[in-house]
Amino acid sequence: MGGFSLIHWLILGVVILLLFGGNRFSSMMGDVAKGLKSFKHGMADDEDEQRRKAEEQRRLGSVERPIDVTPNPRVADPVAPPPPPPSDTIPR
């Protein structure tokens, strides 16, 4: 009762074809496909631009800044206090 069956989808498709006509409907679908292709192309261009900027920054960053090779001793982590000794008697 809640969903569409195959016959409902077929009737809906026939009504849409009658309202819009086969030619107009196919041209609308073609326009949708062109829009999706241009959107994907724009996203790929943005990714290429970001990749190119990151590569340029990486290249310029390695030339301008010298590599620091001085030793940097790590400060010892503070030691946690030892746990209390276990008691031999069990409280009741």
UniProtKB/TrEMBL annotation:
Pfam families: TatA_B_E. Residues 79-92 have a biased composition (Pro residues). It is found in: Cell membrane. The chain crosses the membrane at residues 6-25. Residues 43-92 are annotated as: Disordered. GO terms for biological process: protein transport by the Tat complex. Keywords: Cell inner membrane, Cell membrane, Membrane, Protein transport, Translocation, Transmembrane, Transmembrane helix, Transport. One of its GO terms (cellular component) is TAT protein transport complex. GO terms for molecular function: protein transmembrane transporter activity. It is a single-pass membrane protein. Residues 49-67 have a biased composition (Basic and acidic residues). PANTHER family: SEC-INDEPENDENT PROTEIN TRANSLOCASE PROTEIN TATA. Part of the twin-arginine translocation (Tat) system that transports large folded proteins containing a characteristic twin-arginine motif in their signal peptide across membranes. TatA could form the protein-conducting channel of the Tat system. Belongs to the TatA/E family. The Tat system comprises two distinct complexes: a TatABC complex, containing multiple copies of TatA, TatB and TatC subunits, and a separate TatA complex, containing only TatA subunits. Substrates initially bind to the TatABC complex, which probably triggers association of the separate TatA complex to form the active translocon. HAMAP family: TatA_E. This is Sec-independent protein translocase protein TatA. The lineage of its organism: Bacteria, Pseudomonadati, Pseudomonadota, Alphaproteobacteria, Sphingomonadales. The gene is tatA.
